[in-house]
Amino acid sequence: MLVRRIARPLLASSFVYGGIDTLRNPQSRVPGARPVVDQITAKADEQLPVQLPRDVEQYVKVNAGAQVAAGSLLALGRLPRLSALVLSASLVPTTLAGHRFWEHEDPQERFGQTAHFAKNLSMLGGLLIAAVDTEGRPSVGYRARRAASRAGQATEKSLDRAQKRAAKAQRKSEKRLRKASR
Question: Basic residues bias located where (predicted)?
Answer without folding.
Answer: 164-182
